[in-house]
Amino acid sequence: MKGLTLRNLHKTYFDLNMGSRVTAVQDVSLHIREGEFVAVVGPSGCGKSTILNMVAGFLPATKGEVLVGDRPVKGPGPDRGVVFQNFALFPWKTVIDNVGFGLKMRGIPKPERDRIAREFLALAGLTNAADRYPNELSGGMQQRVGVVRALANEPDVLLMDEPFASVDAQTRMTLQEELTRIWQERRHTVLFITHDVGEAVFLADRVIVLSKGQVLREIDIPISRPRAWDTVSEQDDFKRLSSEVLQMVRSA
Amino acid sequence: MSDHVEPIAFIAGPKRVWLYVRQAAAFIAPLVLLLLAWPAIVTIFDVSPRVFPGVQAVLGAAADGLRDGTLLAHVATSLGRVALGTVLAVAAAVPLGVAMGVNSGVSALLTPLFRFFSVLAGIAWIPIATLWFGYGFGAITFVIFNAVFFIVAYNTLLGVSAIPPRLRHAAASLGAGRVAMLTEVLLPGALPNIVTGVRTGLGFAWRGLIAAEMIATDVGLGYMLFVARDFYRTEVIVLGMIIIGIIWLFIDRLLLAPLERATIERWGLVQRT
Ligand SMILES: Nc1ncnc2c1ncn2[C@@H]1O[C@H](COP(=O)(O)OP(=O)(O)OP(=O)(O)O)[C@@H](O)[C@H]1O
Ligand SMILES: [Mg+2]
């Protein structure tokens, strides 16, 4: 496990419609400690995905740099596991082969990676889905596979871009609880992107509010763990922090 | 060639078998009717064998051809030519299609050309093929190659460029290098399109082959038809036509269509947007 540092990140796009440059991310600096869970919230278009894509190495930064531990990011790599909003499972691979993909890339032989993959599948209650194809699973199950696939590769940092935005509300709450439980066991360094304020406060140790490509505020979330919706949603701390963050997002 | 058979794919169990039987029956029934009408019409209108043969004459021609081995030689030669041309074409087209699909600049440059040549598939190449290669093996292989090559390359390109970028991102962030990206993401992702391309291309190749064999060789089904014409052997011509049709139906229905359906259906690529 390692920490994650964003140092004076800038991103400008060339907007073909307007025929000019638009700044999507402006001088964002952020340090996520080893084993810390940080959520970034902000209104649509404020640059959340752009930041995550630069951290993942999918998108080059216009200026600034990203460090995993003290190593600068040059492109995508297995030190940063990514969970995508639309799951991005390989439709031609079974669930177990999806989960074992990162291990395969490391040259781990099939029996061994199946064993490891099964362990991780069990973690998310997916044991019975191992030999199915992604299109045979519900959205919620697909995203469990997406999370577990990233975890099984044992990344230093976990990057998640609105991973639960495309599942129904009930499933979303279950997935959020499962994520906090798994995170507590393994203590990954997490950068979690969402526009759902409740989700951010429920999951994170620290919430970053983003506005027009810049960090507006950072708020610590000292709610005790383990967290479950039944109890957390009743707590005054949770209510107070949520409304505080919500106000900031709305003013952003 | 693109008869709709998909719906069956989503139904399971005995019902599915029953549907297959019904579909097969619906396909065969008109052919059986034609087979029954044929001797009747020939008798009623007293058609001259020089114009159209009776059923028995055709069966006789089949028996003769089987006995002296010429029929088998024609069929084997034609199939061998198609197989060779197709294998060469696929081997060349898939890597090129992948390269084009990965590089948007190259793809923008070549796509219109490939669409153009896809339309020309097969027969239109025969005259120039015989000019370049003379009459024989080279010209025929060239015609088949072209019928398959452009369509498969174009379909591979489409398949690769339709792979959502996030799948490539996912693979890269799980540690896939260039080779793994090719074998684990690009090729499997494009496979349904490649199969579709091969199916379409083979259809053109088969027709192109028959036409090419009529002018550019001295053995093969097309040649068999063409020579029979010189001797007014309508029973051999019709026999050849029936065999050509049946062989294609077998290849397409029993080999290519199920393969195409299997890749598309199993992976649920319908929902991969
Ligand atoms: N490829 C691109 N070309 C031009 N402009 C872009 C491009 N990608 C993003 N942008 C612009 O950059 C800004 C930030 O986009 P980004 O996708 O990072 O926002 P976001 O916070 O993730 O929004 P959402 O909550 O809707 O996902 C937006 O104004 C967007 O229009
Ligand atoms: Mg986004």
TrEMBL record, chain A:
It holds the Pfam family ABC_tran. Belongs to the ABC transporter superfamily. GO terms for biological process: quaternary ammonium group transport. Keywords: ATP-binding, Nucleotide-binding, Transport. One of its GO terms (molecular function) is ATP hydrolysis activity. The keyword Nucleotide-binding applies. It comes from the Bacteria. CDD domains: ABC_NrtD_SsuB_transporters. This is ABC transporter ATP-binding protein. InterPro entries: AAA+_ATPase, ABC_transporter-like_ATP-bd, ABC_transporter-like_CS, ABC_transporter_ATP-bind, P-loop_NTPase. Residues 4-237 form the ABC transporter domain.
TrEMBL record, chain B:
GO terms for biological process: transmembrane transport. It is found in: Cell membrane. It is a multi-pass membrane protein. PROSITE patterns: ABC_TM1. Keywords: Cell membrane, Membrane, Transmembrane, Transmembrane helix, Transport. It comes from the Bacteria. The keyword Transport applies. GO terms for cellular component: plasma membrane. The keyword Membrane applies. Residues 75-255 form the ABC transmembrane type-1 domain. InterPro entries: MetI-like, MetI-like_sf. The chain crosses the membrane at residues 24-45, 82-102, 114-133, 139-158, 179-198, 204-227, 234-251. Coiled coil: none annotated. Belongs to the binding-protein-dependent transport system permease family. This is ABC transporter permease.
